[in-house]
Amino acid sequence: MLFEHLGHRPRVDPTAVIAPTAVVSGEVTIGPGCQILHGAVISAEGGPITIGESSIVMENALLRASASDPLHLGDHVLVGPLASISGATIGDEVFLATGSRIFNGARIGDRSEVRINAVVHLRTVLPAESVVPIGWVAVGDPPSILSPDKHEEIWAIQQGLDFPGYVFGLDRGTPDLMVQLTERYARHLARHADDTPSD
Known about the structure:
seven-stranded parallel beta sheet; Trimer_LpxA-like_sf
């Protein structure tokens, strides 16, 4: 189903196919030959989403953009089931496997692979033809690609990337961080109350 959000309607090339149970909301442009499968959610939360030619977004994947972090998928990208991409730039011919997670401000170069349940963290930059192995974590610029048991090494890099500051504009040291974060984010998300079907 297509929804108008904040005055923007999705633009879908006539050769693209959107499954009836997929949700496409706001300033979203879907290119020729794309396939958006059942349960996928593509939501432009104040920033644009562009999906290039012949890309596939599989079942129950989530793509989200914000005003500060638009989302771009290049041509011939495969987004696997249950993958989540938030405000990132994805090059051409990229494979994002089942359950992969790509965070705000990340950039993934052409012909890269992010394998099953792997993570590309906030503001991480992967050069072309990179591989993040199954369940591993890429973090930083230049990136370190680490196994999940390397939590202290991941955190040492991730902490400096400042997730709450970058995404929510809040200092990690705020005593009631989660109270302020959830209240601020809820107000932002409440703007969907005025969405209207556009198909």
